[in-house]
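Continuing the batch. This is chain 6 of the set; chains 1 through 5 are on the previous pages. Same settings as before, nothing changed between runs. Recording input and output for traceability.
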Amino acid sequence: MRKLLPALYLRDRDGQLPDHTRIFSISRAGLDDAGFRDKVESELKRHVGETADTARFLKRLHHVSLDVVAETDWSAISKALGDTAQIRVFYLACAPRLFGPISARAAANGLVNDASRVVLEKPIGHDLASARAINDEVGAVFTEEQIFRIDHYLGKETVQNLLVLRFANALLEPLWNAGHIDHVQISVAESIGTGGRADYYDGSGALRDMVQNHLLQLLCLVAMEPPATLEREAVRDEKLKVLQSLRPLEGAGALRQSVRGQYGAGLVDGEPVPGYLTELDRPSHTETFVALKAEVANWRWAGVPFYLRSGKRLATHASEIVVQFRQVPHSVFPGVEPITPNRLVLRLQPDEGVRLHLVTKEPGPGGIRLHPAELNLSFAETFKSRVPDAYERLLMDVVQGRPSLFMRRDEVETAWAWIEPILRAWDEHGHAPKTYPAGTAGPAAATALIERDGRTWHEEIA
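Output for chain 6:
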């Protein structure tokens, strides 16, 4: 109701859904078509705002009541879909343990055809073994070309623009290496807590929930080599090479280069909020914050640290990639030392855009006075149009069979293979999370992680 149906409505409003498109919701809600349409209409007004004519979209909607876990009759779905070779997209917005059983039941009831696709929400498992099991179960029904493992971060405008900035501008790509870049920061900060999802979240934690998918995918796009084309597997081949090049974090090294945090009570937007353990109502070592120092061990990036951090109940809600360039090798300006190095900041949310921090001369006579300034490309201000939600692009890519922005099986499993030794080191050494007050930038240890290298976190997440 909050993301998928509004995205489909907006694509329909812009004329991107063919006339024969039908959208089925399968749930245990016990609704008929009319009741479902009434619910969607009210939710569209809440999540989209002012809606134009929704009649065409609402006519596309149907509801089938079914408990997919129970051994129930699927004939209602078969009858509703009919015997057709049209493209069918199965979007499994459910617990990952159900991905395989639902796929098998759909195939057994004749619902899967050569034109079918299946969309899998993250997380794909909770470790490497479970990820492989899920991939095997779904892969027994759908071919790899039919499976779309969705990560909505890859559909964001700024992430798409990262590819264009790198590979369509001769200014940047020659500098995109260890010779010119000092380090990279990737931050995903949330001001919200776990809310009503505390029980679910406690079985996951920030490393599994955010780093294994979102942050590692962003790292791949920053660090990958130029693909030969943007067609089908080329981008995913290059992302896989980055994951395979990540230097392992194991044992004492994993403890030294990682920080676990867990939010306590504090103030968010001036309002008092409870700590994680209060929301969960039981003891737990699950981390709500994680910071890592990673390295891509290849010729382009050797020696360049990638600092990753993500957490809940932080001071702000923001996601960004910061590419910090090295200082100029020599200053010709007397009395100015050091010169502020250039920085490229890609803001994913909110207010998507790109900022390039430069050094300019401050206007006026009396000598040269240097002043940091920025070139600011705000997508909303520059293009004077609504920035589509990531799901709008990704859902259309599924229908059109474009897999570049989705995770391939070997990507998912290679990411888990890198994450697992960190989890194991935490467990084996009793590495408990450090408490941080809600509404702050996270535990002090995360600041120490980067500052012991003589660097600082980009201040806008604080």
